Protein 1
Amino acid sequence: MRFLRAPVLPLDDPLLPEGTRGDPSSVASAKQPPTEPWRLLVWLAGRRKGLMLSALITSGIALGALPVLPFFLTGAVDHGLRERDWGALTFWSLGMVLAGLVTAAMIVWSHRLTVFWRADASYRVLQLATRKVNRLGDDLRKKLTTGEVVSVGATDINRISWAIDSLAPTAGCLTGLIAVGVLLFNTSVALGLTIFIGVFVVGLITGPLLTRLQNRQEQYRERVGDITERASDIVSGLRVLRGIGGEARFNASYRRDSDALRSAGYKVAGPTAWLNSLGEGTPAILLGVVIWIAARQVAAGDLTPGQMVAAFGYTSAMLLPVHWLIGCTYRIIEGRVAAGKVCELLSTPEREVSGEIMPGPREGAELHDPESGLTVAGGELLAVASSDSEQVAEVFDRLGGFTESEARFGTVPVAQLDRDELRRRVLVADHDAYLFAGTVAAAVAARDGRDRVEAAIEAASAHDVIEALPDGLDTEVDNQARTLSGGQRQRLRLARAIAADPEALLLHEPTSAVDSHTEARIVDRLAETRGGRATAIATTSPLWLGRADKVAFVQGGKVVAHGTHRELIAAHADYRALVTRGES
């Protein structure tokens, strides 16, 4: 992941406040999104206010106009059919057709705007999550599990977008219900009260159901994250599991997690089924009650037949809004739970920059880590030898700015360097760094080394790897290039590091998986390619140690000796024992 350059926020990025786009200083001062679930949803919904208002208004017109159709039907029956007035019948019929066309057009336009609104919210959440993950950098794996991060991208972003998508229909449904109630009140007070009392009772019933649904959705989402993490562990370690005979054991644990996820899903299904039943059954019950009351009033002479037909139409027009309202409520609850997980990601503490950002030093400046005493001078090929390679990795991480430290680049503290400049000038390359899917050329070019791919392949002695592939550099490989051997992947990683051409290159065990003949070629070619630029290699290989300009011997996380390989062999017994494997 250290090979990825942090993406720079574009100056026309839609996350920037209006009026600040195009101003570089606005990138740093852009207002951060809220980290509370409901507030995050509201913030996402309101980022495009014009789009939001358009979607809400058209949805209100579309669903609020549905009850208007029975109004024209009443006029056609009472003033046209009953009085045999063909002119009035034509007028009311044409009005009903026109109202139907307007309603249909508004439904189509509302849906179109809502899709744009949903896509905009989805894109913004993706931006926020990606930018947060990028800012966390190497701290990501220390603070969040793979399952938590993957579930945000695979599940939560989609659910948040559908929650935003449901806001416009929800507003339209409420408008439609109010319109039905008002029209029924104008027709008959008893019919209007029936609708409002019915809706009120449904609200009382659905309140506790929605609370229970939200709690169970949260439990279900936790299980999704757990099983995603388990699956990721099994996939990444499948070869090792098979080698030590642990496949059956991990399969059993995966089955247990799957059973727990299924049980959590069943618990979500209960309140969901009740909500669906209310959505389907309530309008039908209210329709029956309204028709019964309206029929008695027609019989008593309090209503005309046209008004009875209108009452039936008003109540029927309520079927769709109620059904949609229940479904939209369910989606909004899902979106709130997903927003909570996104908020957890956004709230993950980042490593703070101590002091103001300072400009980088002159080219060729040395890197120095006071904690270990290691110095990587410009233009020097330095080998760092230690019996504990993790200690050297920690030193490299401090020099590369991946952990908090007092390390300095020239006279500038690494912690106060601009992160993008530091990544461009200082590269820490792990021997097992991630290889991304795509062509081999793209994998090696990585950040900005497209013009140096051929030279990097040569320096890493990886020409035989490329020649063995069906399409050479244009061969498509999957993530981690699993079809290649460990040594082949390691050489591609080394080629990628060389192609990046950083000012200071810190390599951790770059040839641990290759044979000695290939390693000898790599040592000579890398020394030639990196001539005049700072390069440090964590290794105990005599080939590297003998070729290095200087060797630093690290014990207990401190540099205890430095000099040439021959000098240390002669003067330091522990070093001699390490590099000769205890042989005299």
Note: The chain has a mean pLDDT of 81.
Protein 2
Amino acid sequence: MRLIIVLHVLLILSNGLLAVNSPFLTYTISGKNEWKITQDAYVVSEVLFKDLDLYYPDDIFIWENKMYIADSGNARIVVFDMITREATYVGDMSLFQPTGVFVDDDYIYVADPGTSEIVIFDKSGNEVKRIGRPTNPLFGETANFKPKKLVVDKRGNFYIVSEGTFEGIIQLDQNGEFLGYFGANTVGITFLDKFIDIFYTKEQKEKFLNRIPKPYTNITIDSKGLIYTVTQKERGNAIKKHNTIGLNILPASKERRMIDEPNFIDIAVDNNGRMFALTETGLIYEYDSEGNLLVSFGGRAIATERNGLFTVASAITVDADGKVYVLDRERGLVHVFNPTQYIQTLHKALELYSQGKYLESKGLWKELMIYDGYSKIAHYGLGKAYFQEGNYRAAADEFKKAYAKRDYSDAYWEIRNEFLQKNAGIILLGFILFIALLVALDELSKRGLIKKRLKISSKFLNDIIYIKNILRHPLDTFYYIQRRKHGSVLSATIIYVIFFLVIQFDYFGRSFIFNLNVHDRSVGFVLLASAAPTMLWVFANYLVSSINDGRGTLRDIYIFTAYSFAPYILFQPFVILLTYILTYNEAFIVSFVSMILITWSAVLLFTGVKEIHDYGVLDTIKSILLTLVWIFVIILVYSIVYMLWDQLAQTIYAIVQEVLYRARK
């Protein structure tokens, strides 16, 4: 065992030394979606074609130990035999600007936007056929047909990415007949778009709004016939995996939660469904078959040319051995990346995981932890293994590190169930004793042996404790507040402080299952986000009531608003504590009770406006709506003043700098 540990340490140290000399760093994602430097997943083994004079090559494809390159600038397809290391050429007399190449058992298919055609060659390089613009009326007379990239399925159907085509992928049969558009991108509608829809006419929308889907950037196909696409200027779903009818079936992409880039230009898929996406800057993202990021590596060569860094990357592919090939368009080179022991171990673990063999993958996940203790997917896989073997506490710990809330909830449910089974008798006995204690205290109180209420002489403390009275007698509470028999500015201020503390507790104090993903939020941000609207409400409502003959003073509004938060202040802490007991299956309880408390507080606030200002129901609604309008106006004015002041400050600073500069001269 000690020997194994020593060997692992030596392996890690050796990898660390290699990383020092590596031209790029490899990153992975932690459970909190933070980028972490990890072991090298791939290392550059060689750089091809330094003496081949490729000129702006655009695409690369590997088929049966041969590499096919769309050498766009030289108007040809380069066929490189990876065994004999010899190069031949196809189409150097018949192509104009080849930008996409695809190969199967029989043919070489080339997308040539220069001629607006698909050109088909046999394996000997003889031209077999050309497919031009579809003549089918359904295709449309004004539709673009400039094929940039293409793939062909086992039935001989073409899937073509055409320049400027936003309707989707052009699908043709083997004879070039138009079959339809495949899997078009959707148009995202923002809140502002929905707002505009209400007020704009149809003609205005057509004139001012440009709501068309983004065109696809590139395409590939896997061994099962599933189509993969990448789209530039997308976030969260730049990569899509399409089923036979064009729908996106990639889980992470459908939920728009993929960790991706807005400038992907190509994608490749290996035999196990793992995806490799390439950016123009040379970053390579590797994902598992469900869209979870494994590693990111590569980069742009800025000052010097170094193997593994790219000037302008243009295409990527992967072979059966897991080697990754990336085409540098600017330099006309192909960089070959070999997988390291780290990524090979991760791949093996993922293969066992995808087959449901969680226990068999346990050793591999533990080995990966030696390489990288941050990897989100490694913690998740190990958690699955622990869960299957019944070690639920260890599973919960790993799921927590992977930030996998639902799986953590499942493990916690098992832990809770085990605890309840072991301690059911004690819990029941404790509940019975608690009920008996309450009954006994009530009986002693009735006999006068103990005092039911503790008398507090301090008016300040009485005013704070009086908050509970609003739950049963809200009208009396607001009446006494206005008559100054209960409540004060100081007691209301203390209640506000408690209210803001409860919000902080609600925001940061929930259990892992129910937390609000607030690792990127600060206490100050939450305080400002809660205190500012509250104080704006008090001030704006005072302005509105002054205009609309409201009887409440600024002091009254300040105090009754604080007391209106009583349900949330008194009961929300118990809801938060409840999150440490419940699982995802009971999440509706937390949401439902929280909504009741917020609604209850809103009703009390409505009642407070009505009673303090002596309004009717309609006047109360009017007052609240006008208050919200005033809050919006105040925020708008503040924003305008802030921007003007910022510009003024920058102008004054620039003038001062100019004066100082001239004074020095």
Note: The mean pLDDT is 87.
Protein 3
Amino acid sequence: MTSEIPESRSDPSARLAALTSWDADWTGLRVVVTGLGLSGFAAADTLADLGAHVVVVDGQESPEHRAKADTLLIVGVQDVLLGERHTAVLPDVGGLAPELVVTSPGWRPDQPLLAAAAAAGVPIWGDVELAWRVRERAGRKTADWLVVTGTNGKTTTVGMVESMLLAAGQRAIACGNVGTPILDAIRDPEGWDTIAVELSSFQLHWTHHIEPAASAVLNLAEDHVDWHGSFEAYCADKAKIYEHTRLACLFNEEQPMTMRMVEEADVQEGCRAISFTTDTPGRSMLGVVDGLLVDRAFLADRANQALELGELQDLGPIAPQHQVANALAAAGLVRAIGVPPEAVRDGLRAYRPGDHRIQLVAQADDVLWINDSKATNPHAADASLAAFTDVVWIAGGLPKGVSYDELVTRHVGRLRAVVLIGADPGELAGALRRHAPDIPVLSTAVRDTGTGPSDGHQAMVAAVREANAVARPGDVVLMAPAAASMDQFESYADRGNAFIDAVARLMEAKGLGS
């Protein structure tokens, strides 16, 4: 062993190839970590714990970032470089060129520092790649990974997976692109039986080799084209989730592109292709029969039988089609590792969806007020709109380079009126003029006073007021923006909370407040 260490250190690629567990020799590895958000902080903290020499770079110099930097310096990070000037060049580590860059998922491949690393032949990993490399550690459980991606529904699905695993008596956690950073989960002292990992297209871009027990692509639609450069590149990164899967690749029967991804993936011997559908399932599928969620994939006599996994009513008072699909995908992932049907049912009953996802906010005068601020792109808004019949739609925001023509065309028949929010709703307004010229389009009172959270909250109050003026009994006022929130709000949660607060004010004005 002692003779091998100097040889591997003389060949950086050989050394990196050997780093496949926590107990490998990470000592002195020169690493640049880009980004000081949740995943970047966790990566830097982990690498320092492993004994690597770490320099962190982030463009922001806020008090919060300086506090994080101070913490990292205390735990052994060599340097933290804050400010835009540091993001343009690849820094040295201890006076020598770095051997590895670990990047936060939001950093684009054409970002100057990352482009410089690529040009210099320095490998670039994401936090998920690093987590896979350190998942095995002496004295701790090594968890199975159940991994999920898709344009929409990822957070809901991994939450359902976690709930089903807990109902089966497993020690499990949902992590990754939601809640707990994956490296924080990996470092848990006790370890896990199974982890449910939400993976964004950004994270998958920087992931090179994982071997999940089961994997799923929920759906695909145009999104983040500005980051990836094209829809084809976006899909190619999503498809990486299926590579090297051990037991089952779950795909959406109603989206053939996801099936083609499985067909083209290099999976392990014996891995099965399993689909889910919100219709009647065939063999090796999960689906719906007479209001029941059923499994015709993970049982011996799947040609003639189906296992009941639960009922549609187990999903709660509002169970739109896309939520049913998410539940079936989650069920398929856990069934792949042997979770019994009753745990699927109990997990669905115990699961509570997060806020801002088709969240019923109020019901008054026979009008439902629904918050789906998580609908940050047209595909998510499409699912929301499809769940209701007569809709006063509050929409708009940062469009991220996508088109709204297909969305408006699909749902023009259910729109009663549209209330536009967002600093520049021109793309959506144009689609409405072209494809829904007879639908009233209302603009909020706050538009041209600049951007930022305060303007957004004022705009939402105005939007709710205008929606209330046109809503009739039987209508649904649906806030599903089909756009990102950062033009007027701090986040989609901030936008959703603004809607909740504005509706609460309206209910109080009507004498219906608590």
Note: DSSP finds 19 helices and 20 strands in the chain.
